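User: These chains co-purify. Model them together.
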Amino acid sequence: MFATAKEIVISARSLTKKYKDFVAVDGIDFEVRRGEAFGLLGPNGAGKSTTMKMIASVSQRTSGDLSILGKEPNTQGPEIRAHLGVVPQKDLLDRELKVWENLFTYGRYFGLSRKFLKDKVEELLEFAQLTEKRMSKADDLSGGMQRRLAIARGLVNEPEILMLDEPTTGLDPQARHILWDRLFRLKEQGVTLVITTHYMDEAEQLCDRLIVMDKGKIMAEGSPAELIKKYSSKEVLELRFGTDKNEAAAEQLKDLAERIEVLPDRILLYTQKGEDLLTQIVDAGLNPITSLVRRSSLEDVFLRLTGRSLVE
Amino acid sequence: MTDLKFSPGKAVDPQRAIRWGAFRVAEYRIRVLSKWLWSVVAFGLGNPILFLLSVGLGVGALVDANSGGQGLGGVSYLQFVAPALLASAAIQGVMDEVTFPTMDGFVWDKVFFAIGATSISPRQIADGVMLVALLRGLATTLMYLAILLLFGAIPLSSFAPLLLTSMLAGWGWAAIMMAITARLKEDDGFFAIISRFVIAPMFLFSGTFYPLEQMPIYLQPIGWVSPLWHATELGRTLSYGAAMELGMLLLHLGYLALLGLVGMSLTYPKFRERLNS
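Assistant: Joint model of the two components:
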């Protein structure tokens, strides 16, 4: 089969997962094409991780159809998993083993030869900037290094699809940017990425296309730019009047903007021109303590779709 | 910085990966175990030496002098206790290698979940762990046997039968312990309880140091359920011909095999459930 840009590598139809009475994933449909970076976005408990487990072929669906690399995960789990790379939310490294041993043993699980792995491990250490730490115990690495090791481990079998469950949660900004750079390089080399995140900037940076999930359902689907265009305005004006004064101020502001969201600590005004709106508000005699004009983001899309913010 | 050489989906041969899965897990377990090799060897050799010096030279000399070799099946006291000591060593050896890795795999580091994301199946993980536990049991038993032979405590003809009975006891015990450990959600000092309230009484009440029939009848059931007693009885018959009816011989063999089979058949579905829910 030729690896064309259009080939579908993951296809889900009415995909459902129930745990007893709880519906974790509620009949969702989506497709992922080869070479895409596909995001699952949503708050904790939205059903992202459950969806990831079903794609990773370690959790059987309750109903619906799911096809991964043209195979049926219920019966061909091991064949599918042979071509997946998985970076779990908690790294699940072997803390007793050295850095290089974590990569080596993982490669052996895929039946890779020692000869192949000898070079592969070095290559991955370099990719993850861990060459100098090769003899350290995994336990002794910093959080960012452990994350990079987990990503390197997920690549040892040269997977067709790399799955990352909240790849940068708990990392400092610098470590996040290093990771984003690494993931971008992988995408350039034709690896399909499936990423869950509840960070908007991460989704905007990494994902070609994403689904926004809430309570097991898909709320919206599209590229970050499409979603912002469809569900938000061009700009957002953020105003703070003080915790107990926001509600009262909102009452006076509500007719000035296309849409208004009152959060506990601030008011968001959706508009095409933020600066103009701010001038208008100040001229009207309202004096916010702080103001900020910014571009609309996926955070705003999520707020619009669910009425809640993503990171609570 | 160099880029990865990468041809997605080409490196792995799934059939090959799937076929040898259990051995890959075993290979990993050996790598971990090798970091503790000194303690495996120290315990493997230390235990029999201490026993020979204390029980063998002390208690043994006393028993042999008082019975004239007649009271315990016409063999030396060391020959009499050897099957029990060996089976007990095998049980101790396998115990550490099923309980701790399984606990680590599901609860502490959760490494089984990382392995389960590869082409390896839950059953292969269980098999791989068991394989290395049996290897550890084998190594412990062989070291014990070597010491016993070296000190002339047992004749060479006892080697094969005692290796068999010990390993059978080890397997039965390992399988049951694995089935239990696979069901633990957290470590509540369970292993300390097992070693104090199960292993220690089992060692003392399984006809280890004297025939079980010497016990009051209400204590004998501890021996009947213990794999150690069955292995010891078998070992005594097979190594120096202690009298036993064929029915009993089959019962002992059957009981140990049953423990192993029941243990494994309770282990596999639990591994599957925990890894693929």
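The interface with chain A takes residues 1-14, 16-21, 24-25, 27-28, 31-32, 35, 109-111, 113-121, 275-277 of chain B (CB under 8 Å).
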